[in-house]
Design goal:
With 169 residues, this protein is mostly helical. 53% of the residues lie in helices and 11% in strands. It folds into two domains: 10-108, no CATH class; 111-168. Residues 32-36 have low confidence and may be disordered.
């Protein structure tokens, strides 16, 4: 049904928008995984947010085979989904995760690193202990100040209330 009186944009603007949508659709839906944001961009796996493409800097994510172990593969989504990157490298998830975990373990599970972590923990515990003691000291000093002020005053605190010495008789 054609209703020219209901149009809010000109035919020229409408045609420009339609052409732009077609060009965006052609640019982003070509390739193996069609769509602007395929599941590989949003899936959460162990290293998906930590791996970066060496060519374009995009996050390396799982781009295929999210099923069983060994089939899932990490790769550059800009190459896989949009053809905008020349990085064709694809690495099996189980292999890259095993290697990265191994490297992290070798870097962290060393005697010198463990000793450093233990010393830092002891230092933090000692700092917390000192802070607690300083807080307690502050409370005691405030209590002492209160007692000193009360003893210098002709008014005495009795049972949580105030009473003038002269009134007590």
């Amino acid at each position: 049904m054609d209703a020219p009186h209901l149009r809010i944009v000109s035919d020229e603007t409408w045609q420009a928008v339609t052409n732009r949508l077609a060009s965006v659709n052609a640019a982003f839906s070509s390739g193996v995984g069609a769509g602007l944001c395929s599941r590989s961009h949003t899936a959460r796996y162990l290293f998906s947010r930590f791996l970066k493409c060496g060519l374009r800097g995009s996050n390396i994510v799982l781009i295929s085979g999210r099923g069983g172990a060994g089939w899932a593969k990490y790769g550059c989504p800009l190459h896989q989904n949009r053809g905008m990157c020349a990085n064709e490298m694809v690495v099996r998830r189980d292999r890259i995760e095993q290697e990265l975990i191994s490297v992290l373990q070798r870097g962290v599970l060393r005697e010198d690193v463990a000793a450093f972590a233990l010393e830092e923990f002891k230092l933090d515990a000692r700092i917390r202990e000192i802070e607690e003691l300083l807080e307690e000291l502050g409370k005691r000093e405030r209590e002492l100040d209160t007692i000193s002020e009360e003893s210098a005053c002709p008014i005495r605190v009795v049972g949580g209330g105030l009473m003038d010495v002269a009134m007590k008789g």
